[in-house]
Amino acid sequence: MNLTFRNKAITGILTVLPANEIKFEDEMDNYNFSVAKSLKLKMAMGYNKHRIVEDGVTISDLCVFGLNHLFENGLLKKEDIDAVILITQSPEYFMPPTSNVIQGKLGLKHDLICMDINQGCAGFEIGLFQAFMLLDQDEINKVVLLNADILSPKVSKRDRNSNPLIGDGASITIVEKSIKPNTVFANIKMDGTAFDALIIPAGGFKTPSTPETATMVEDTAGNFRSLDNLVMKGDDVFNFVQREVPPMIEDLLLKAGVDKQAVDYYMFHQPNKFMLNKLADKLELPREKMPSNIVENFGNASGVSIPTAITFNLGERLTKESFLICLAGFGVGLTWASLLLTLENLNFSKQIDY
After folding, report:
1. pLDDT value of position 347
2. CB 171: neighbour CB atoms within 10 A?
3. Mean pLDDT, to the nearest integer, of 224-242?
4. Which helix (H) or strand (E) holds 222?
5. CA separation, residue 286 to residues 22, 249, 278, 289 (Å)
6. Taking the CA atoms of the chain, what radius of gyration do you get in angstroms?
7. Exposure string (b/e) for 317-328, b if CB count within 10 Å is 16 or more?
8. Cystine design at 303: which of 123, 178, 310, 337 (Cβ 3.0–4.6 Å)?
9. Burial class (CB in 10 A: 0-12, 13-18, 19+), 155
């Protein structure tokens, strides 16, 4: 499905990352794998260190901390916020929505839309779609898009496929009506027949958590996990990305009438370095145009990986310069989505530690 949005702009991006950093070597003893094979895995996948929260920290803590940083530094005013969209797969409760919890903690106005959306790897793009649509309303001028996930408690520490790459984090993106005419091109696709390629099998109403679902079981590759843990069919996900993402990007650029070499950066979701490098090669793009350094420095915090890639690789340059950027997210769902837009003269583009 191809989408077009007009006269919308991102005016600020802040990422909030846990200060707690864990190195790959510190966890190697957890895996049923030799040291030599673990180090080979580290090199191939781009594992190095990842950020995970301390016990008891939730996504509202990260979001409130980041928003208060913006308020206190004069980068955002509470009274200017007309909508809060939260994209997460780690809500604080089944009910109420966590966006309402954040609104209450911050004392935001009542004349406000709060919305939770359950999305993961493509959540940044889907959140932007929703923000752009809300901005078509006359009385909505500024939307705060929150992407936040704390999935480290749901990953088995003895799963070498998932544990080394998982990260926690949050991002705050300010979306407004553009002061000058522009067009954002986008597309999105979904395939629910492969819903179990990335899944936490237990914990919802379908399979409630019990002592039995917490039992650790060894798989054929020597990983230990329970039904309460995240499980990823790595080969299936890799093949899906290599098969579906390149034609999606080609179609996006065709609809926009833009040559792929004219795009300054391809800021994509970052499952791991190996997958992104292969994707850049398949798209015949220079690898430096598709940064792949987020998992090795911070870990993969689902949809938060894209704004983290932006703030880490471009940072303050976005407050002074202009870049044509292609965004793409792909994974859980299965869902894959992309956008082509210009980022320029942002009020802020930075990351802070919690």
Report:
1. 97
2. 29
3. 93
4. none
5. 30, 15, 11, 6
6. 20
7. ebeeeebebbbb
8. 123
9. buried
Q: Between the CA of residue 30 and those of 25, 33, 135, 161, 182, what are the distances in Å?
A: 10, 9, 48, 12, 51
Closest residue by Cα to residue 339 from 182, 155, 142 = 182
Q: Which residue has the tokens 């390629």?
A: 197
CATH number at residue 203: 3.40.47.10
d(CA 340, CA 350): 21
What is the β-pairing status of strands 322-331 and 335-344? antiparallel
For residue 44, pLDDT beyond 90: no
pLDDT in tens, 161-206: 889 899 999 999 999 999 889 999 999 999 999 999 999 999 999 9
Helices (H), the chain: 24-27, 35-45, 59-72, 98-106, 123-134, 234-256, 273-282, 294-297, 305-313
Number of other residues whose CB lies within 10 A of the CB of residue 61: 21
State phi, psi for 62 to the nearest 5 degrees.
Answer: -65, -45
Number of domains, the chain: 1
| Cα distances (Å, whole numbers) of residue 326 to 80, 208, 341 | 28, 39, 7
Task: Quote the CA–CA distance of 240 and 229 in Å, as a whole number.
Answer: 22
Tokens of residue 225, six digits: 């996990």
Three-class SS state of 307: helix
Q: Structural domain of residue 345, as residue ranges?
A: 1-354
- Name the residue among 185, 206, 83, 196 with its Cα closest to residue 125: 185
In contact, 194 and 346? CB cutoff 8 Å:
no
Specify whether the CB–CB gap between 269 and 329 falls below 8 A: yes
Start-to-end Cα distance in the chain = 38
- What digits encode the pLDDT tens for the residues 90-149? 999 999 999 999 999 999 999 999 999 999 999 999 999 999 999 999 999 999 999 999
